[in-house]
Amino acid sequence: IAGAQWTQLNSEFEFISENDEHADVAAGDRIIDESLVDEALDHLQSEASSAEAEVEAAETIPDSELRKQLVALKTRLDSEIKIHNMPLCYVRGDFFDRPPHPVFALHNSLAGTGLNPSGLYLRDVFIWLPYLLPGCPKRFMCTCGSALSRNGFNDDPIARRVRHIPDDFFLFTNRFICDGRRVNEPGCGTSIQGTDPHILAQLPRQVQVAFPAYISPRGAVSKLMVRLMRNTFSHRHGAAPFAEMVTEVQYLSHADGELMYTAAANFYGQTGLKRFSSFDDPHGYAGSPPSAPYLKGLFTDVVSAHRIFIERDTATKPLTVAKADHTFHVLKHIGSVKGEQIFTAASTCMNEFEEARGHAIVYSKSLEHVEDMYEHMFEGLRASGNPPTQILYTDSPQAERPFHERINKTMTLNVVPVTQWTDLPPFRSDPNTITVSVSDSIHIEEAANEILQNLFSCASPSQLYPIALAIKAEHCADELSRLQSPSDILPSLRSILTNSSIIKIGHDIRRSLQTISQAFSVKDIEPSMASKNPSTLELAKYAKLKGRVDSPLASLHDLAGAVLHKRFDIPAPSTSWVSPSPKFLCAEIDCL
Ligand SMILES: [Zn+2]
């Protein structure tokens, strides 16, 4: 390429950088991050306080229909237990003590003092009396080791309101006490509710499963609600729409009652009756649907309590096929400090059953942050007897492969990497190529000088001179110390690198030049690369421009396959400085 062609090519690049929809050609050597949503997060702080306020709101108030129901129930249970040794609902084979269904409640009230809606405000009550349940121990034990005594029912509140659909229910239980006044075996004085996990744990498993609710200091929700939340929250149906759904269902339940009441009044020709209670009248229907912060808080409590089990389960899952990716989307749901995001990405690793096997919230996309996660996952595979990971899918395999192969040694065991070019005939160096391979600064200078001489004396303005420089990356300073001093910088080589009329063509040539500029302290390379018309030509970018490859970052292996239709295997980097490196380098140059 020379003169006009070069200008033409540069203007094509410019056109693309201005019209490139996905900016993948123009910004070839830069990874484009997905945009980060800077949504404000202000609801987290208020969660705890609003949950507390709601617990209070859910309490029954004196003289309300619900309080009357619970007071009457407590007295009735006492006498039922005296007669039957258990509540009548247990005799019937049910945990629920249910008020009559509205249809019968209305019909019954008609026979009494006239059609009355108050029976429609009552809720079901779940009776949980552990000492009367099948398979219960003779004595429940306290955490201190001595036996617990029964300590009657609760007074205030009599029962706990449990959030549920289509309507809340109450959970009624008894108390236990580790009685300090006992003569034989004085206890420690602890009072425990029958719904306490410590009591539940002393019941047979099949009975434990029947317990209907999750109780936390923030409140109580039914098992069904938590199951619905788990299923919906994990599919983007968050707490806010869930709370709206529960509210809607509870309002509809109230509307059903009101409809039955007014229709019955119409049917029986009754007039001048009491109005049906409004949904939220605490004396009447006392509807109190849970808010989104309340549900979110409770859900967090439930998941935190189960976390150890969830994690243990996760750690025993197989990971024979792994799928790893970073995302930026979930991070908007994670708290920030003064609007500054603490973490920028989440890395997730799924297994062959689409189960999350590892998840890390990280400061950047750099793989060093997820090293621990992978090590722990592989440790879990060994510990639980699962086979080692065999395949790993990622969106940038070229960049991530060395990392994964280093972390998981089993990945490379008995594996020959295959690409679409593997079956092509292998690339061979052109035997006519004259290779001059020197490793001494004086000879390098001589060779470079010869190129310059030929170049400027030659009649033809353009000629290709393959040049390869081997730099041992890790010990750059030591190995090249002779070349480091600016006075000793090989003037001819330097002018080849900086002269803008000599176009540097190569694979990942810009990065190579940057490396050289740093290693040799050749400061004037960088400005020449930054100029509008840089004297460099990235082969991969050019191949992309010509439609030969999809990515402007295509590897030399891909370029050789797509352009030359040859298989070019990039040799493993040599461990010694001298021997195979120059050989490899000239093969690479031939390939170019
Ligand atoms: Zn005790």
Automatic annotation (TrEMBL):
InterPro entries recorded: DUF6729, RNaseH_sf
Record domain DUF6729: where: 120-265
GO MF term list: nucleic acid binding
The protein's name in its UniProt record: DUF6729 domain-containing protein
